[in-house]
């Protein structure tokens, strides 16, 4: 193992010279840091293939032998990641150097700066691209209605709504306080808190406060970025968050940016720290046409009804202050809107229930503020949420429907790869549902998929159809007559008459 580590150190140094901007003057110093870190007494004296290393897109070919060696010694994946991430962190430019390079490129073109940080995050293995590339991606197309995008994610564990809600009540006693605090940069990690030894981010000023831009280690889509506030404060949908989103759109008009809702069930997976998600991908929601365009109380700003499965409105205009004013009026009106006949109750003895998921982009000089109306109330019939996926769909998706899913890109758990294959085998063998579950108990709930496959539907078609039904469940104003009337009544109350 020592010989293997010694060789890997020389290969990593060569890799860093060609990919991570390591200067020749710093090689001896960094070599000694790596020798100490990996507990190797002296450098490797053999030859390495520098030409082949320079051609690498990621350091996996160098790291895999190390990972295999540590795995044979009984270390877990998380423990091995902490070791390799720390090594790559030592080879990555210091945060000040990354910021300086980013800022220099931004002055030339904002796209150059984000491309630099994104590529650096892949090349230094913060984004573990080899794992992400194992994700299963497909489009779900329908005879009527917008398409959806489906990702069976092989690189991130599944969370339940209970896990997410419990995290909001957890005492803040650890360092770093959460996965989105600035103190994560270079942090070695611990059980329950993954390594961030090779993380790099850059500072931004949004809404008059300091935020940071980094890329998601899971990259659900092209250039999937995370923008987090410097202060460890809970997520909140208000005028400040909206203004910060619009400032980001000014700085990086080639990206969309969005904020998850600020409540469990309808929010994101981390509610304890204010943050946004964005990137270079065009989510399905952002491709669909508008149904109606309405003028309202703010001159120069129109409101569009968006032709999507959940309830989405879009405010559009060129004047930043006016668009902010108009969008905030709708956000605040929805936060206090009640329509018990449609199960919409904004507040009760349990607290607040209505909020919005916000997505902002700039197009041809116009600000577009997409508001996905959300409500997280539960009742005896819907313990997981009245406007959440029905319990019968938990076999496909049990996590909260956050910004990405609400905008049409479903991130589904890795277990579905194995489970779908087992159901396909059961359908091909003519097994009954009871026989299938007896043979594979974790296929409980897959009766619909089994029946669909027996009638010629593919697993992908079945999964896509369920995801569409989930978004129908999420919609606060259903697409029936009662829902349409309710939506129009709500819009009239905000000054947008039909």
Task: Give the SSE layout.
Blueprint: H1 2-19, H2 27-37, H3 50-54, H4 60-72, H5 77-91, H6 95-108, H7 110-123, H8 129-132, E1 136-140, E2 148-152, H9 161-167, E3 202-206, E4 209-215, E5 225-229, H10 239-251, E6 256-259, E7 275-279, E8 290-295, E9 302-306, E10 312-317, H11 320-335, E11 347-348, E12 351-352, E13 354-363, E14 366-375, H12 403-406, E15 409-412, H13 415-429, H14 433-439, H15 447-454, H16 459-474, H17 481-493
Parallel strand pairs: 2-15
Antiparallel strand pairs: 1-2, 3-4, 4-5, 5-7, 6-7, 6-13, 8-9, 9-10, 10-14, 11-12, 13-14
Helix pairs in contact: 1-2, 1-4, 2-5, 4-5, 6-7, 10-11, 13-15
Textual characterization of the structure:
With 498 residues, the chain is an alpha+beta fold. Among the domains are: 2-91, no CATH class; 160-389 and 485-493, no CATH class. 39% of the residues lie in helices and 16% in strands. It has 17 helices and 15 strands. It has helices spanning 2-19, 27-37, 50-54, 60-72, 77-91, 95-108, 110-123, 129-132, 161-167, 239-251, 320-335, 403-406, 415-429, 433-439, 447-454, 459-474, 481-493; strands spanning 136-140, 148-152, 202-206, 209-215, 225-229, 256-259, 275-279, 290-295, 302-306, 312-317, 347-348, 351-352, 354-363, 366-375, 409-412. The strands form three sheets. Strands 3-4-5-7-6-13-14-10-9-8 form a ten-stranded antiparallel sheet. A three-stranded mixed sheet has the order 1-2-15. A two-stranded antiparallel ribbon has the order 11-12. A hairpin with a 2-residue loop joins strand 13 (354-363) and strand 14. The protein is globular, with a radius of gyration of 25 Å. The model is unreliable at 158-164 and 166-173 (pLDDT under 50).
């Amino acid at each position: 193992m020592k010989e293997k580590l010694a060789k890997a150190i020389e290969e990593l140094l060569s890799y860093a010279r060609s990919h991570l901007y390591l200067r020749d003057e710093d090689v001896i110093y960094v070599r000694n840091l790596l020798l100490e870190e990996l507990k190797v007494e002296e450098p490797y004296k053999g030859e390495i293939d520098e030409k082949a290393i320079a051609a690498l897109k990621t350091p996996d070919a160098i790291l895999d032998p190390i990972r295999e060696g540590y795995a044979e010694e009984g270390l877990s994946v998380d423990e091995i990641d902490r070791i390799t991430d720390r090594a790559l962190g030592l080879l990555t430019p210091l945060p000040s150097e990354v910021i300086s390079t980013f800022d220099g490129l931004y002055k030339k073109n904002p796209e150059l700066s984000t491309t630099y940080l994104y590529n650096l995050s892949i090349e230094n293995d913060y984004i573990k691209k080899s794992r992400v590339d194992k994700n299963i991606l497909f489009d779900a197309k329908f005879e009527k209605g917008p398409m959806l995008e489906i990702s069976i994610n092989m690189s991130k564990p599944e969370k339940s709504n209970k896990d997410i809600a419990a995290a909001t009540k957890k005492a803040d006693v650890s360092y770093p306080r959460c996965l989105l605090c600035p103190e994560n940069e270079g942090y070695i990690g611990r059980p329950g808190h993954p390594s961030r030894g090779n993380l790099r981010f850059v500072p931004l000023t949004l809404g008059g406060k300091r935020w940071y831009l980094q890329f998601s280690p899971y990259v659900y889509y092209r250039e999937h970025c995370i923008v987090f506030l410097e202060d460890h404060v809970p997520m909140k949908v208000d005028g400040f968050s909206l203004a910060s989103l619009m400032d980001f759109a000014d700085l990086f008009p080639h990206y969309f940016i969005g904020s998850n809702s600020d409540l469990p069930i309808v929010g994101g997976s981390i509610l304890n720290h204010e943050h946004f998600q964005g990137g270079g991908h065009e989510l399905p929601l952002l491709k669909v046409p508008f149904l109606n365009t309405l003028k309202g109380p703010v001159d120069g700003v129109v409101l569009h009804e968006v032709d999507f499965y959940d309830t989405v409105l879009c405010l559009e205009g060129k004047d930043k202050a006016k668009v902010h004013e108009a969008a905030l009026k709708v956000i605040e009106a929805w936060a206090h809107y009640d329509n018990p006949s449609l199960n919409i109750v904004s507040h009760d003895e349990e607290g607040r229930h209505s909020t919005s998921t916000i997505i902002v982009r700039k197009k041809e000089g116009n600000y577009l503020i997409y508001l996905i109306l959300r409500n997280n109330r539960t009742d005896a019939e819907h313990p997981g949420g009245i406007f959440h996926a029905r319990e019968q769909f938990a076999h496909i998706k049990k996590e909260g429907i956050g910004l990405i899913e609400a905008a049409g890109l479903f991130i589904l758990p890795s277990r579905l790869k194995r489970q779908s294959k087992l159901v396909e085998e059961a359908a091909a063998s003519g097994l009954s549902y009871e026989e299938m579950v007896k043979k594979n108990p974790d296929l409980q709930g897959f009766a619909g998929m089994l029946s669909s496959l027996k009638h010629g539907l593919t697993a992908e078609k079945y999964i896509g159809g369920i995801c569409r039904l989930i978004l129908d469940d999420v919609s606060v104003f259903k697409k029936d007559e009662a829902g349409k009337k309710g939506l129009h009544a709500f819009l009239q109350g905000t000054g947008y008459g039909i």
